[in-house]
Design goal:
With about 400 residues, this protein is an alpha/beta fold. The chain has 14 helices and 15 strands. β3, α5 and β4 form a beta-alpha-beta unit. α4 packs parallel to α5, α4 crosses α8 and α12 packs parallel to α14. The chain starts with 19 loop residues before the first helix and ends in a 6-residue tail after the last helix. Pyridoxal-5'-phosphate (PLP) binds next to α4. Belongs to the class-I pyridoxal-phosphate-dependent aminotransferase family.
């Protein structure tokens, strides 16, 4: 008898680790190393865990083997509160903070606790696809709003407004953005908050790249502009602190909570059901948020991340028919392939062809719920020389590439 997956998974898709990975593994098993530019995992590219994080985890390990509080260690939650108070989110106590096995777990909990079947959530296109997948798994429909490549990939406010219906429950903001690298200014954030206000939407603000900013970009917490809006802010240690494998993230609920008591109770049920998040990694949160921010040096001129972003952006734009908006934050580039130059009907096939030809793995734009087969995403994490080599090979592959 066949064992089939549940119907709940019908619209759940996460192409960053999609089927093309099987082909990559086949190639590697056959002795062909593959350059994997598909996941934003700093450790895989030689970024080390900051010593202060390891010190806290190791120093507390012997006492971290029991279940902890379902919401997380109180000291770590208090550190999150202090951190957000400094960033303008005033109305927050440790009770409003949940720690999770990465932001991913908390994103799924937040949506599971909110959505009834058929409820709608406004999600950016392109998006980090976990958001669309988690909405679908929770029974909702992700309604994608357009981010405008011609306007530094800023969300199109008119498009968002036009897509609000009486089933819309929430608005997702990803800032700094994965995959585009956009960093939103306050004016844009105020526009998003205003829409949420007028239509009584919850705002989910994914700010996991808040400290990975280039040039003169600055980051504002959405919730700091919206004290009277229910806002859930997500963040964690995976990116700025480069310890994705420790699975440590947090979620902070701000704004008017009195009318959301039922929703908060739902979140508590889900937090209790998974007992607690990985306890050892929670010990690192206070150390990570306080004091010296070791990411800083990587982002300054001459810093590794900044140099890599520059190289990827410059060399991608040197490829005929390829254009890339300069990423202002995060760890990715999301270039466009001019349809007048490249005939691509199926961008997943393009990614597979690139893998077979150059042993190089990127992710197709449609994997980020972008509707046209004319983009792809690569991570800007490899060392400059490796990244330059990879982008040159993408250019070699694209030269003359066309699908029948
Ligand atoms: N949100 C965004 C925008 C991401 O890019 C990622 C990971 O790539 C996550 C959330 C998940 O992070 P975590 O490792 O904390 O689960």
């Amino acid at each position: 008898m066949q064992v089939t997956q549940s119907a709940k998974l019908a619209n759940v898709c996460y192409d960053i680790r999609g089927p093309v990975l099987d082909e990559a593994m086949r190639l590697e098993a056959a002795g062909h190393p593959v350059v994997k530019l598909n996941t934003g995992n700093p450790a895989a590219f030689g970024f080390e865990a900051p010593p202060e994080i390891l010190k806290e985890i190791l120093g507390n390990l012997a006492d971290a083997h029991g279940y902890g509080d379902a919401k997380g260690l109180p000291a770590a939650r208090r550190a999150v509160v202090d951190h957000y108070r400094e960033r303008g989110i005033e109305d927050l106590t440790a009770e409003d903070v949940y720690l999770g096995n990465g932001a991913s777990e908390l994103i799924q909990m937040a949506l599971q606790a909110l959505l009834n079947d058929g409820d709608q959530v406004l999600v950016p296109a392109p998006d980090y696809p976990l958001w669309t997948a988690a909405v679908s798994l929770a029974g909702g429909n992700a309604v994608h709003y357009r981010c405008d490549e011609q306007a530094d990939w800023f969300p199109d406010l008119a498009d968002i407004e036009a897509k609000v219906t009486d089933r819309t429950r929430a608005l997702v903001v990803i800032n700094p953005n994965n995959p585009t690298g956009a960093v939103y200014n306050d004016e844009l954030l105020r526009g998003l908050v205003d829409i949420a206000h007028r239509h009584h939407l919850i705002v989910y603000s994914d700010e996991i790249y808040d400290k990975i900013l280039y040039d003169d970009a600055t980051h504002t917490c959405t919730a700091s502009l919206a004290p009277d809006l229910l806002c859930l802010t997500f963040n964690g240690l995976s990116k700025a602190y480069r310890v994705a494998g420790f699975r440590s993230g947090w979620m902070a609920i701000s704004g008017p909570k009195a009318h959301a008591a039922s929703y908060v109770e739902g979140l508590n049920i889900l937090a209790n059901m998974r007992l607690c998040a990985n306890v050892p990694a929670q010990h690192a949160i206070a150390a990570a948020l306080g004091g010296h921010q070791s990411i800083g040096g990587l982002l300054l001129p001459g810093g590794r991340l900044r140099e890599q972003r520059d190289i990827a952006w410059t060399l991608l734009n040197d490829i005929p028919g390829v254009s890339c908006v300069k990423p202002r934050g995060a760890l990715y580039a999301f270039p466009r392939l001019d349809p007048k130059v490249y005939r691509i009907k199926d961008d997943a096939l393009m990614v597979l062809d690139l893998l077979k030809a150059q042993h190089l793995l990127v992710v197709q734009g449609t994997g980020f719920n972008w509707s046209e087969p004319d983009h792809f995403r690569l991570v800007t994490l490899p060392r400059a020389a490796d990244l330059a080599d990879a982008v040159t090979r993408i250019g070699t592959f694209l030269d003359g590439y066309s699908q029948p």
